[in-house]
Each structure stands twice: as C-alpha cells, then as structure tokens.
Design goal:
There is one protein chain. This protein has helices at 18-22, 63-79, 100-109, 123-128, 155-167, and strands at residues 52-58, 84-90, 116-118, 135-139, 145-150. It is α/β, with parallel strands linked by helices. The protein has one domain (18-41, 49-167): Glutaredoxin, CATH 3.40.30. The protein has a 5-stranded mixed beta sheet. It starts with 17 loop residues before the first helix and ends in a 10-residue tail after the last helix. The relative contact order is 0.25.
C-alpha cells in the first residue's frame, strides 16, 4: 500500500459541535492521564503510540452515551487485535456520576473491557476542549487526532475511519522497507 494521507478535514460532528470539532483534527492528541483508572493500569497517549486510539468521552447517566456504548464495545472487540486501543473517559455531568464505586459497578455490569479512566475534575475534558457527551476522537498511530464524532450516529463513517487508520503505516518510510 502506498502511503497516503487522509484529508485533515475528515471529521464528523453533531450540529452544535461541527466548528469546535473541526479545530481538533490534525492536532496532536492531549494526554489521558488521571489518578483513577477503573479497569486498567494508568495509560498515556505516548504509551499508546503505534496504535490507533479511540478516546470516548461519556458518562454513565447519559442516554446518548448508552446508545453509543454497544458500538464502541463492538469496535474494541473487532479491532483490538489489529491495533485499536480504546480509552473511555468517564466525565460526570451530574454530582451523582462522580461516585467511583458506582462507575466501577457500571463498567462491570455493562461488561466494558476497554480501559476506563475517571475525569471527575474535567482535566482530560479540558485538555481536549470537549463540550459534549458522547464524543469520540480517533487518534492515528503517530498521536495525531484524525477524526472527531460528536453525538450518536455516523457509525459506518467512524468504522471506516478506524479501518483506514489501522491500514496506515506508522510513518511513510514503512512503505519502503
């Protein structure tokens, strides 16, 4: 496969998030570090370099997030062995969603197997300049945000982007080795 760069403007977003989301495509992904990880050792974007990473902002009380959840779980199951990493960033909308034990129960009860980090103080949320639940940021193997999806829907487009990013080499030199 010859090296090809996907257009920097490749993105999708809900009606309210189009302009904000577009500004993140092509930028280096901020880190996802936090003190409390639910079902994983602490991870960082730097440690995930070489993988395609889907960072999903969600909260357990959000109906829209619950609608997206089966798709994210399916993508993780389908593509993890091909290099897709998923990090669920649980950022609470309401005070009751800050309860770490409740988030842990939710992750267990819903059989969420990809790493989930809590973001009760909105540190990760603010690093990404995020404003929406759910929101998904696809990061390429070099650590660059290549696609943003705000809200429900666009599942086929998101999956096609996952596939395209997984097919890309880490660097242009890999095509010639």
């Amino acid at each position: 496969m010859a090296w090809r760069r996907l257009p920097a403007a490749v993105m999708a977003a809900g009606a309210l998030g189009v302009f904000e989301a577009r500004s993140f495509v092509g930028r280096e992904a901020p880190d996802v570090t936090s003190l409390v990880w639910i079902n994983s050792r602490p991870l960082s974007i730097q440690a995930l370099r070489g993988s395609v990473v889907l960072v999903e902002f969600w909260t357990s009380g959000c109906f829209n997030c619950r609608n997206v959840e089966p798709r994210v779980k399916a993508w993780y199951q389908r593509y993890a062995d091909r290099g897709l990493g998923v990090v669920g960033v649980h950022t609470p909308e309401f005070a009751y969603e800050k309860d770490i034990a409740a988030v842990t129960r939710y992750v267990t009860d819903h059989d969420i197997r990809y790493p989930v980090v809590t973001d009760n103080n909105y540190a990760i949320w603010n690093r990404y300049g995020n404003h929406y639940w759910p929101a998904m940021y696809l990061i390429d193997k070099r650590g660059i945000i290549r696609y943003v999806r705000v809200g429900e829907g666009g599942y086929d487009d998101t999956e096609r982007m996952i596939q395209a990013l997984l097919a890309e080499p880490i660097s242009p030199q890999e095509d010639h080795e």
